[in-house]
Amino acid sequence: MTRNEAIRARRAIAAPFGATLALILLAASAMAQMGTGRVSGTVKDSQGNPIEGATVTARAGDSARVLEATTDEQGRWAILGFRSRTYDFSASAPGFMPYNYQAPMRQAGKNPDMDLVLERARMGQSAGTGGGLLAEAQELHQAGRFEEALSKYDELLAGDPTVYQVNLNRGAVLRELNRLDEAKAAYQVVLDQEPANAGALVSMADMAVNAGNLDEAVTYFEQAVNATDDEIIPFNVGQIYFQNGEMEKAVEYYEVASERKLDWAEPHLQIAMVYLNRGDLATAAEHLTMATEVEPGSAAAAQAEQMLAALPKPE
Fold it and tell me: In CATH, which of 3.30.70.100, 2.60.120.460, 1.10.3720.10, 1.25.40.10 is domain 233-315?
């Protein structure tokens, strides 16, 4: 091989790698623009009964982009896609007073749980905000006044120890205060009453990841995924594995998420990222194509189309 031939060969190898790196950076930038922060919680009435079919929405200022979720039969909801800024939230259900409030969201990871309480509408009432000790504690919590919020949560539990779910909120506050053993104890109270509580399981897993105890985290994660049909949980588990470089496990959980929500492009976009990291452009292209097909018109699908257009064309 001549010197010029060797140079051309090296360029041929380097070009796809350079294109792959550019695509990875492009996808990472797009995910940041779309927002990857998550929040979940419940909507219940003042007696602690779950409200099915309640609508929870989040809007950033006057933005036209609205994030929305509907509660399941246990009153649970989850929203993915937050950027780091303050959002206007609202929760509503037929026969109940709407609850409106503002809360700062973080793009990196999961935000504190929001367990919302709606008051039944009385004659002549049609609008307003939620009230009561729990709402006051949540507002302090979201405002970052953690010691005051913890005091209110403790006051609420002292008055009615049966509302054990409040320990989900207490655990989140205690984590913010770096009182991690107490936070674990709070989540364990919930799990003692409700072993399949996904919120407590995910929180325990997240704490284990932060402590570097991945084996313990996996135990909690698998229980959480099996405890619910929610697609957000396996997706976020996949994100954690991806960030820790465990690509096989990341793909496994992204696939679970995509199976649970067939018309969701983001899991396919993330799977494509895994294969781009490996340099397997053909498999990445398959998943990028799937992302465009399952959820056309979405931000993730638009990003997948852009990445497909940038992929090196086979010779």
Answer: 1.25.40.10
